[in-house]
Every structure is written in C-alpha cells, then in structure tokens.
Write a structure and sequence with these properties.
Largest sheet: 5 strands, antiparallel
Radius of gyration: 25 Å
Structural class: alpha+beta
Shape: elongated
Helix content: 25-40%
Number of strands: 16
C-alpha cells in the first residue's frame, strides 16, 4: 500500500499450495511465518529453503516499494500519477506462481493489479508485457525498455517449479490423505408457508465432493442454492447448500453427499430437536 498504517502492513504476501495458505510474510515481522506443520518441518530439515524464501520476499518487498514510489524513476514510479491522485491510499498487487499439471506439463503466471483492478501481466515466452488498462501503456513501454527486468521475471517463473516440487515432496502425506465429510441439516423459518433447509458438509479432503438436495429421490438441480467449496484453516474443506420448501413437504427432502472418504453416500434430513418439540407444544 502507498501509505504506512499502524494496523495494516505496508507490504503483505501469502503463499498458497493449490488453494491452501501455507506461509505468509509482512513488513512488520520481516520474516516468513509457516502456516502448516509440514512447512515448519521443511524449514527445520532444510534451512536453506527457509532462508532463500525469506530473502526472496525481502527482495520482493523492496521491489514493490520502489515501484510504488512517486519519484526516483522506479519501474512504476512516475507513471502512478497517470492513474490517480497521489494523495490517499493506493494498492499495488501481484499474483505470481507456477503450476504442475497431471500430464506433466508446466505453466507459470505473473499478473499485476492497481487499486484492485487487473493492470498488466507478463508473457515469459515473448518477454513482453500485456496491458489490461489504457493507463498501463506507459508502464509497458518503460518495462520493455529494460530487458534485464523482463529476464529476471522469466528466470523466477522458471525456477518456481523447483520450489513447487520441493513443497510437494514435504506435503505428500497431507495431500494424499482422505478425510470424510461430517454433515448436518439446519432449518430456518421464512414464513408460515416457506422455510429454508441448509445442508452443511465440513472437514473433508480432498476437495471434490458431490452434494445436492433431493426430493422424493429426484435431484433438485435448479431449486438448490450452492456455495462454492471453501478451505478450512486446518487444510480440509467445507460446503453448504440450501433449498426453500413448503414446511408441509419437509419429510420429502434429503441432502445427499458423495465423497471419496465415504463408503456409501451420506443422506441427511432435518430432525427436530427435543427442546424444539417442547416449545411447539408450549405454543
């Protein structure tokens, strides 16, 4: 961010393996903090990895500070005025990394954003920069006038695969585990004629799961509202899906879950708790 803030680090970075956060770094601590146990193990068994990761993020922080400066001829520098007034808070972001696909093919990416908008990205095969905003044209010209800058980015993206493979060797046990989902159904009254049934599945790994609401054994494809499968802090996943029904037909609806960790599908229905029955009788 362009201005220091007591609560918000001026520079922040988070490292992901697939969609799971594994490490973070910020300008307050100035060191890489492991977020999973196998990263801690890797740092102990291979201190060089941890040292190199810390040095890389320290260098990245310095590059970002240089790019966001309003003067001094930084790679970003004089061009920031083209985007916004220099007063106020602005953000300069990047997402970069690499991927190793099941067929053995490899890929990499580097995209920059300014104030939350896609701004400019790097094509390592051509060493060219691709703009996403008209204001990025000046930055493109400046960066392409510096072949060394493009070459350094290309080298990083090519060595990124080595780092990924090192991570995979330490995380193999975690990535190969199977955890079945735990499920439950809750209910929310909308009106006298409508209620919402919510099916939650959590604590499962791997990510792939088939979850749906069924009415009389038929899939309610269009009536079901899905939320995307999302990661938990412990490396497992959760998902929830809801459906609006007539309370009189409640017994006809079931939540159906299929996952690699289940021998048989998990089929769930809403059950009224004893205290809820007593409250109904009291009314």
């Amino acid at each position: 961010v362009s201005e220091p803030n007591l609560r918000l680090p001026q520079f922040f970075s988070k490292v992901y393996l697939d969609d799971q956060p594994i490490a973070c770094y910020d300008s307050h601590t100035r060191r890489v903090e492991p977020l999973v146990s196998w990263m801690e193990k890797m740092e102990k068994e291979d201190p060089k990895q941890g040292k190199e990761g810390n040095e890389m993020l320290l260098a990245t922080e310095q590059v970002f500070r240089h790019e966001l400066k309003s003067g001094g001829g930084g790679a970003w520098g004089e061009n920031v005025v083209l985007l916004n007034s220099l007063s106020g808070l602005h953000t300069w972001q990047a997402i970069l990394g690499c991927e190793l696909k099941e067929d053995g093919s490899k890929g990499s990416f580097l995209h920059y954003g300014y104030d939350g908008m896609d701004f400019i990205s790097f094509d390592k095969e051509t060493l060219r920069w691709v703009t996403a905003q008209p204001q990025a044209e000046k930055v493109k010209e400046k960066w392409e006038d510096d072949p060394g800058w493009s070459q350094r980015n290309k080298i990083y993206l090519e060595t990124c695969i080595e780092q990924l493979q090192s991570y995979l060797s330490y995380s193999k046990e975690v990535l190969q585990r199977i955890e079945p989902p735990v499920g439950q159904v809750t209910q929310k009254v909308v009106s006298d004629t409508i209620e919402t049934l919510i099916c939650q599945a959590y604590g499962f790994y791997p990510k792939e799961i088939w979850a749906t609401w069924m009415r009389d054994g038929e899939v309610c494809q269009y009536e079901t509202l899905h939320r995307n499968v999302a990661p938990n802090s412990d490396g497992t996943y959760y998902v929830w899906l809801s459906i609006e029904i007539d309370p009189k037909e409640r017994d006809r609806f079931w939540c159906h879950l299929e996952h690699e960790g289940l021998q048989d599908p998990l089929v769930l229905a809403w059950k009224e708790e004893p205290d809820e029955k007593l409250q109904d009788q009291g009314r």
